[in-house]
Amino acid sequence: MSSDESKRESLEEFKNSFAYGSRTNLKFKFLAEFSDEEAGRFFQGLLWKLGDVFDEGQFGRVMEYVYEWQARQERLRNYQAHIARGDIGVVVACFIYL
């Protein structure tokens, strides 16, 4: 096995590195809270958006996409916190917006 192969990262290691690792970036810190499957969907969608930017030149769509995923994670975090506290009314309201 070459030294490059021994340094390969898993998707989990990659997404977590944006929170407190070699790629620390507060704009993408939210990725650490996603499952590997969700992070994969995020990156797949991001690549589609980047392709659209190449075709259309509207970079704002990439920023909107990232902000949507950040907001989604924040809503999920709030929903889980309310479940833990037993705030049933708030849980129902949060569920509607997920």
What does this 3D model show about the protein?
Helix content is 72%, strand content 0%. The chain has one domain. The protein has 98 residues and is mainly α. The chain contains 5 helices and no strands. Helix 3 runs antiparallel to helix 4 and helix 4 runs antiparallel to helix 5.
Succession of helices and strands: HHHHH
Inertia-based shape: globular
Task: Give the number of domains.
Answer: 1
Number of helices: 5
Distance between the termini: 44 Å
Mean pLDDT: 79
Q: Give the beta-strand count.
A: 0
Rg of Cα set:
17 Å
Helix content: over 70%
What structural class should be given to the helix and strand makeup? mainly alpha
How would you describe this structure in keywords?
98 residues; mainly alpha; 72% helix
How would you concisely characterize the structure shown here?
With 98 residues, this protein is mainly α. The chain contains 5 helices and no strands. Helix 3 (36-56) packs antiparallel against helix 4 and helix 4 (60-85) runs antiparallel to helix 5 (88-97).
Write the layout of secondary structure elements.
Elements: H1 3-6, H2 11-20, H3 36-56, H4 60-85, H5 88-97
Helix pairs in contact: 3-4, 4-5
